[in-house]
Design a protein that fits this description.
Elements lengths: L18 H24 L4 H8 L3 H29 L1 H20 L4 H29 L5 H29 L7 E2 L2 E2 H7 L2 H11 L6 H6 L3 H12 L4 H14 L9 E3 L2 E2 L1 H15 L2 H14 L4 H25 L5 H23 L3 E3 L2 E3 L2 H19 L2 H9 L8 H52 L13
Antiparallel strand pairs: 1-2, 3-4, 5-6
Helix pairs in contact: 1-5, 1-6, 1-8, 3-4, 3-5, 3-18, 4-5, 4-7, 4-8, 5-6, 6-7, 6-14, 10-11, 12-17, 12-18, 13-14, 14-16, 15-16, 15-17, 15-18
């Protein structure tokens, strides 16, 4: 599945008469992003409960936390082809079903290993949702509103992260601050994982109410249906001519394959390596440690569970704020300057966190962090999330959609996205063992990657602000 910018002449952009309907279908599709964010962060509230319930060590715990990322890689690979076969809303409905099954299974596991299976199933749904939502929005949105409607996806992801943290905090409070406290006859961490069935059902119901993509309808010969959808989302105009334009573009498209990415002295084309580098650096700074492990992290340095969950929620709010800032600035100051600001800010923040965590001590068998260093650690964590969100969190996805030539864009994006999931998995699976070895040392490693991203940006990453996609050829 691929989407390309429209070619050829178009009627002047006008406000669609059914703009509310267009916003509704874009928001419904973006709910997959909400579930992506929710599922990614909800495990944060269950880490210590899982550790205590099943008595697992850091390696097994890291594997259970990280396994959805491998499932996501698989889901991302199959989503495009499946969407071309059965349609975009059908894939959303399937993803919603997988999310719901994963939520129930994760809530009622028998062993840590079947919990891993249920979480891997949820990961497949994450991968499918992460691919299908932006593609669908790009295909149904009127050209004049495409950028704003496409931003729903990233906004939904960060909102999902924040809501999951808030729900976890609320459930923990009901369980008197104990992740293994009883709620509804289950341990509180089980309820946290099971609550995801609610947004999953909402996603599935909404996916039943949105139209098929006009592009898919034209591709499958259902031109009259395509005209009805175009009339609903774009209003009047020459629908026959628009359908003809869609058909002509699709017939003229080059279907990229992996061999198109080769040809450089190092195997892959240089620009493909740049895309991989952007994806990998985005994860190697350790951002998902905050969203997967922050509650456990704060508890490991002596902060009580209720406060640790509150701090996890406040970092999610900072994440939303930073994302809004990035959306406002990315077209004003450019991609590279924003990325450089983020890299420098993250390096300083991570360095401060490493310094603070180096003062962790054990008093009467309890781990504690002295007050001055504890305050610095909290400030550094929030600053890190802010600098990431206002830069790399948004910039990487923008640039991955812009830096590749048209003829290889879809295939190169697939490779870069796969590299991102793998790097995410490596960071997530390794953190429990790294933190047991040396928590401060872990943050030194992440700070080093933030520093290394600066010369990478300066030397190899092109500025794409103000350049058309065709110019990238």
């Amino acid at each position: 599945m691929s989407t390309t910018a429209p070619a050829g002449p178009h009627p002047p952009a006008v406000r669609p008469p059914n703009l509310r309907y267009v916003v509704f279908i874009a928001a419904a599709a973006a709910l997959g992003g909400f579930l992506f964010g929710y599922d990614s962060a909800v495990i944060n509230g269950a880490v210590e409960g899982i550790r205590g319930r099943f008595g697992v060590g850091p390696a097994a715990l890291g594997a259970v936390i990280a396994i959805p990322l491998l499932g996501a890689a698989a889901g991302a690979v199959i989503a495009g082809r499946l969407a071309d076969r059965v349609g975009r809303p059908r894939v959303m409905q399937l993803a919603a079903l997988l999310f719901a099954i994963s939520a129930v299974g994760s809530m009622l596991p028998f062993t840590v290993w079947d919990l891993a299976v249920w979480r891997a199933l949820g990961g497949i749904a994450i991968g499918m949702a992460s691919v299908i939502a932006p593609a669908y929005i790009a295909e149904v949105a009127p050209a004049a509103y495409r950028g704003r409607l496409a931003s729903f996806q990233q906004a939904a992801i960060v909102l999902g992260i924040a809501v999951s943290q808030l729900v976890n905090w609320g459930l923990l409070s009901l369980a008197d601050g104990d992740q293994r406290g009883t709620l509804l006859g289950l341990e509180s961490w089980q309820v946290m994982l099971g609550v995801e069935i609610v947004p999953a059902v909402v996603y599935g119901v909404l996916a039943l109410r949105i139209p098929e993509s006009p592009r898919h309808l034209v591709a499958t010969g259902r031109t009259e249906e395509a005209k009805r959808v175009l009339a609903a989302v774009e209003g009047g105009g020459d629908l026959d001519a628009e359908v003809a334009r869609i058909d002509a573009r699709m017939r003229g498209e080059h279907k990229p394959v992996l061999r198109d990415l080769f040809g450089g002295r190092t195997g892959l084309l240089p620009i493909v390596w740049v895309g991989i580098g952007l994806s990998v650096f985005q994860q190697l700074v350790g951002i998902n440690v905050i969203f997967y492990y922050s509650s456990s992290l704060w508890q490991s340095v002596g902060i009580d569970p209720s406060s640790s969950f509150l701090y996890s929620f406040t970092t999610s709010i900072i994440n939303i704020l930073g994302t809004v800032i990035a959306m406002l600035l990315v077209d004003r100051i450019g991609r590279k300057p924003l990325a450089l600001i983020g890299s420098a800010g993250m390096a300083v923040s991570l360095g401060l966190a490493a310094w603070a965590f180096s003062f962790t001590t054990e008093i009467d068998g309890e781990i504690a962090l002295p007050d001055p260093q504890g305050a610095v650690a909290l400030f550094a964590a929030h600053a890190f999330v802010l600098f990431f969100a206002l830069s790399w969190g948004v910039v990487v996805w923008v640039m991955l959609g812009e830096i590749f030539p048209n003829r290889i864009r879809a295939a190169a994006l697939g490779v870069a996205a796969s590299a991102q999931w793998i790097a995410n998995w490596l960071i997530t699976v390794s953190f429990p063992s790294l933190s047991d070895w040396n928590l401060a040392g872990s943050y030194v490693i992440y700070a080093a990657f933030a520093l290394l991203s600066i010369p990478f940006i300066l030397k190899w990453v092109p500025e794409t602000k103000g350049r058309t996609l065709e110019e990238m050829d």
